[in-house]
Design brief:
It contains 13 helices and eight strands. With 361 residues, the protein is an alpha/beta fold. Helix 6 links the parallel strand 5 and strand 6. The structure holds phosphoenolpyruvate (PEP) and manganese (II) ion (MN).
Length: 361
């Protein structure tokens, strides 16, 4: 079944003049909520609307989407306004129903991308259609799963494909709902440079204050588009309330975004520089996470010393650390002097922290 004009390729990187913007509510909730949100978004110049109809939630009991009853609401809204509609599909029955109601674009969610059975089922049901499909990264930071999902969809004959970077689960990250781990979307682009890479700052940030920062970072990194959650009254949204923006706030955000030159055509060096800097950012992030873990352990040992009434400063242990760490560093080609300085600072901080614990009533 061909359900759209083949000449119109939505995810064509070559035809792109600015970032592709997709916006809309996390979930379609009621006819009124949908119509009202969409009309405000269309007023803001949005041409592609997102909306979850079937919501794969991590835990049962959360709102799981209104389901197929929303399809006629979407169809009616499309008769009144000019927009393309994208929704998540997670099974062959979703695909069949959504196609019946003229949904324009599908996406595969992060919880589906992890499961080759699910992706294969979706791929089978897409055979013979020419619907554009966006593939979100899997919840875990596994590049092969993402590539595997993409290959299954490509093998089903789908030509119009984009990738969505929505971040990765990480219990240690206290800032993001899903850690961006920017090096992963960058790496997949080196394998598939022809595909559009869309960033989803809403699911990465998990809170609306952070959405514009992530969106800007994505554009700075040459992402091709953004998918942002927007709801007419975010606080009352049935899902992902904290991360959605009003259509007005979205319009404001889009106006403030600085779009960078799409390509450094004449300057491969600059591109390389960007990539290395990103890797440095990631390395620093990892370093800080290790530091955070170390400090948590220091606190734990402080509590333990207090409980057993043992002195904070254990000279032997400290001497052993001060000797071994520069040696370990040397094996990794690190300047032992730097390591000595670093551990001296860390030791001061550990003593300060443990003394604080000791002195507490
Ligand atoms: C969504 O887009 O609303 C959603 C559930 O996203 P993800 O699959 O990235 O969690
Ligand atoms: Mn959501």
């Amino acid at each position: 079944m061909k359900n759209r004009d083949l000449l119109e390729v939505i995810f064509d990187k070559k035809k792109q003049t600015g970032p592709l913007i997709i916006a809309g509510p996390c979930s379609v909730e009621t006819p009124d909520q949908f119509l009202n949100t969409v009309s405000q978004l269309v007023d803001q110049g949005i041409g592609i609307i997102r909306g979850g109809i079937w919501k794969p939630r991590t835990r049962p009991g959360s709102f799981e989407g209104v389901g197929s009853i929303a399809l006629p609401w979407v169809q009616e809204a499309k008769q009144q306004m000019d927009f393309k509609f994208a929704t998540e599909v997670a099974s062959s029955s979703h695909v069949e129903e959504a196609l019946k109601y003229g949904v324009d674009i599908f996406w595969i969610g992060a919880r589906s991308t992890v499961n080759p059975f699910t992706v294969q089922e979706i791929a089978e049901s897409l055979k013979g259609t020419d619907i554009p499909v966006m593939i979100k990264n899997p919840v875990n930071a596994d590049l092969s799963l993402w590539i595997g999902a993409l290959e299954r969809i490509q093998k089903a004959g789908i030509k119009d494909i984009a990738l969505i970077h929505r971040g990765f689960s990480n219990f240690r990250d206290k800032v993001h709902r899903n850690s961006p781990l920017w090096q992963i979307p960058i790496e997949i682009q080196t394998h598939f440079p022809e595909l559009m890479m869309i960033n989803d700052p809403s699911h990465i940030s998990g809170k609306r204050e952070l959405v514009s920062i992530i969106a800007q970072k994505a554009l700075d990194l040459n992402f091709d588009g953004l998918m942002i959650e927007s709801h007419r009254s975010p606080d009352t949204a049935w899902s992902d309330a904290e991360q959605q923006l009003t259509p007005q706030a979205l319009g404001h955000l889009l106006q403030k975004l600085k779009t960078r030159k799409v390509r450094f055509e004449d300057n491969e060096t600059l591109h390389q520089l960007e990539e290395i800097r990103m890797q440095i950012d990631q390395a620093d992030h990892d370093l800080l996470e290790s530091l955070h873990r170390r400090m948590e352990l220091v606190e734990k040992i402080g509590q333990y010393k207090k409980l057993n009434n043992v002195a904070v400063l254990q000279m032997e242990r400290w001497q052993a650390i001060f000797k071994s760490r520069p040696e370990w560093g040397k094996e990794l080609n690190l300047n032992p002097e730097l390591i000595r300085e670093l551990f001296s600072l860390l030791h001061q901080e550990s003593i300060r922290k443990q003394t604080e614990i000791m002195d507490k009533e």
